[in-house]
Amino acid sequence: MELNPVIETLLNHRSIRKFKDKPLTQDQVRTLVKSAQAAATSSFTQSYSIIGIDDPKIKKQLRAIASDQAYVEHNGYFFVFVADQHRNRAVGEKNGAGTSVLDTTQRMIVALGDACFAAQNMAVAAESMGLGICYIGSIQNDIYKTAEILRLPEYTFPFFGMAVGYPDQNPEKKPRLPFDVVFHQNHYHSELSEESLKRYDQEVERYYQTRTGGTRRETWTGQITRGLSLPYREALRPFFKDQHLGLR
Ligand SMILES: Cc1cc2nc3c(=O)[nH]c(=O)nc-3n(C[C@H](O)[C@H](O)[C@H](O)COP(=O)(O)O)c2cc1C
Q1: Looking at ligand 1, which atom is closest to the CA of residue 174?
Q2: Class of residue 158 by CB neighbours under 10 A (exposed 0-12, middle 13-18, buried 19+)
Q3: In the chain, which residues fall in CATH 3.40.109.10?
Q4: Which atom of ligand 1 is nearest the CA belonging to 138?
Q5: DSSP output for 103-119
Q6: For the residues 216-239, what does the mean pLDDT come to?
Q7: Cα(146)–Cα(167) distance, rounded to whole angstroms?
Q8: Which residue CA neighbors atom 14 of ligand 1 most closely?
Q9: Which residue, 215, 192, 134, 143, is CA-closest to 167?
Q10: How far is ligand 1, taken at its centre, from the CA of residue 109, in Å?
Q11: Mean pLDDT value of segment 167-177
């Protein structure tokens, strides 16, 4: 496999959930946001916004929403990635254009995608600077409250946060699915290789045991199956409707 510093950074990713008590500088924050902005964006719409959170009170409030995960409060900096059609709506309205196209599923997907591409650019930039990151989807646990705290207007969705900072832990890399399970040649192959999954389950089980000193015994297929038992974050659907996202 070909390696270079960028690919090595990508292959070395692991989520960091404990940071040193050292804030990022304004220059670092700017570098990260500029890197995020350099990502590709569907039809050049740039349908996302990034909210930088350094107010300890707001961090604390977001931590409470995010299942009390300490690293939402304690990090070098906290970003929230917002899928954002509000700005483009304002542009359209200013120019006297009808803006109902922003309510469509297609535009919602564009905004969600744009937020992801920007975020992952930031993640890679941060890791290339020796920083660590953790995505925080659990700001969606109380989506209305998150939107209220961040004073989000209609046509926006707070997709996830990203805690960034100097790592104060060095976790093992979390094993990914075998190459052949994820990569399909020419067309989709529905049959799953039992043997590959079994081997992968053993690998994941060993990973969790090492990470938790033997207290967590879990396989990947077990985790996926458990996740199917309950619907999750059901307020998202009404929230999207209220925000005029994906209505048609
Ligand atoms: C959209 C998204 C949301 C996530 N939300 C959380 C979260 O709320 N809390 C957390 O600890 N990790 C969160 N993660 C991190 C994942 O758990 C992690 O990426 C995954 O288990 C793989 O582990 P790794 O990043 O260490 O390789 C999130 C990741 C993504 C992409």
Answers
A1: 27
A2: buried
A3: 5-171+233-242
A4: 8
A5: GSHHHHHHHHHHHHHHH
A6: 95
A7: 26
A8: 135
A9: 134
A10: 21
A11: 97
Rounded to an integer, the average pLDDT of 72-93 is: 98
For 82-99, what is the mean pLDDT? 96
Which residues are near ligand 1 (CB < 6 Å)? 13-15, 17, 66, 69, 134-138, 160, 174
Whose C-alpha lies nearest to ligand 1, atom 6? Answer: 136
Atom of ligand 1 nearest to the CA of 159: 1
Protein residue whose Cα sits closest to atom 28 of ligand 1: 135
CA distances from 201 to 135, 171, 174, 205, 222 (A): 24, 19, 12, 6, 8
Fold of 5-171+233-242: NADH Oxidase (3.40.109)
pLDDT tens-digit series, residues 138-164: 999 999 999 999 999 999 999 999 999
What pLDDT shows up at residue 211?
A: 85
What's the pLDDT score for residue 214?
Answer: 87
Residue bearing the CA closest to ligand 1, atom 30: 135
What is the C-alpha separation between 51 and 77, in angstroms, rounded?
11
- Residue 103's pLDDT is 94
Q: To the nearest whole percent, how much of the chain has pLDDT over 90?
A: 95
Please give the DSSP secondary-structure letter assigned to residue 185: S
